Amino acid sequence: MKIIPLLTFIALFLPIDGAINTAFASQKNTEKSLPENTKKISGKVTEVILSAGFSYVQLNTGVEKIWAARPGSTSLKEGDMTAFTAEMKMQDFHSKSLGRDFSVIYFIKRFSTEKEPPVIKPPAIAKQGVQRKSASTISMTTPGEVQVGEQLRDVVLDGLNGENKKFSDFKGKPLIINVWASWCGPCRAEMGSLKNLAQRYNGKQFNLIGISTDDYRNRAEAFIKQADIQFENFLDHKLQLENMLGASSLPLTIFVDKEGKVLVKVRGAREWDNPEMIDAIGEMLGIELNH
């Protein structure tokens, strides 16, 4: 197995404060990880909106006006020429933070003309236990939250795109749990990379599931269908899973070992299919992941 430096490992999973919290921890290898046949869209910037840690940018392609959104802030301004890769196309998307609807919007990683964001370096911290505990201490706990190092309690999971199951059904392999909501922009933005991760490894080296905190089942099901999510997803009821998992902010991704013990909680969107991130996941779970 490839061993990555400790500081690199910490940087990948360390929560990021403020507006940057929803940005991807690393943008390296972004273009390399995209399919070669992915469509490129280019045009002139006609409007820029910053909201809830997300940048919404409208482009005039010369044929039509198209919206795209990326995590974090952007240096783009009206009149700039730019382009993006059409990674995740969403139709009839409602932005809760903006209070408006988009008939079509693309959730992307970055615009091609933007400068690479600076590498976020972790503070000097003692080596012991950093990667296992730092993520869980950044936010207030929720009622009945299972903390890092504790055993995941077994509950019935209400299947959205499959059968009902329990957490115990996934024992025997490490488990990755992604907590999301259909109205959460960063959740939507990272879903494409989670789909890629699941396609490569789900049910093999580890299991990957999603938990929707949507209040309405039909909205969660509509997003799963629209985004063509194949890995198993389940619906929370009366904040049971939200509180138990500690989802005080979204998205939240939880890593659990094969015996059901919580290893790490990662808050904010990430580029989960990035080769560097895959190495970190394998190192943390103690498994070898080829990419």
How would you portray this structure in words?
- There is one protein chain.
- This protein is α+β, with helices and mostly antiparallel strands and 291 residues long.
- It folds into two domains: 6-26 and 120-285, Glutaredoxin (3-Layer(aba) Sandwich), CATH 3.40.30; 40-107.
- The protein is built from six helices and 13 strands.
- It has a seven-stranded mixed β-sheet. The chain has a six-stranded mixed β-sheet with strand order 4-1-2-3-6-5, with helices on one face.
- The chain starts with 5 loop residues before the first helix and ends in a 6-residue tail after the last helix.
Question: How are the SSEs placed, and which strands pair?
Answer:
Blueprint: H1 6-13, E1 40-51, E2 54-60, E3 65-71, E4 81-85, E5 88-95, E6 100-107, H2 130-133, E7 156-159, E8 165-166, E9 175-180, H3 185-201, E10 207-212, H4 217-226, E11 233-235, H5 240-245, E12 252-256, E13 262-267, H6 275-285
Parallel strand pairs: 3-6, 9-10, 10-11
Antiparallel strand pairs: 1-2, 1-4, 2-3, 5-6, 7-8, 7-11, 9-12, 12-13
- Overall 3D geometry? globular
Helical percentage: 10-25%
Strand content: 25-35%
Mean pLDDT across all amino acids:
79
Number of strands: 13
Q: Which regions have little confidence, pLDDT < 50, spanning 5+ residues?
A: 5-10, 15-37, 116-139
Strand-pairing-aware structural class: alpha+beta
The largest beta-sheet arranges its strands as 8-7-11-10-9-12-13
* Discrete helix count: 6
The level 1 CATH classification of the largest domain is Alpha Beta
**Could you tell me how far the N terminus lies from the C terminus, measured between alpha carbons in angstroms?**
12 Å
The number of domains is 2
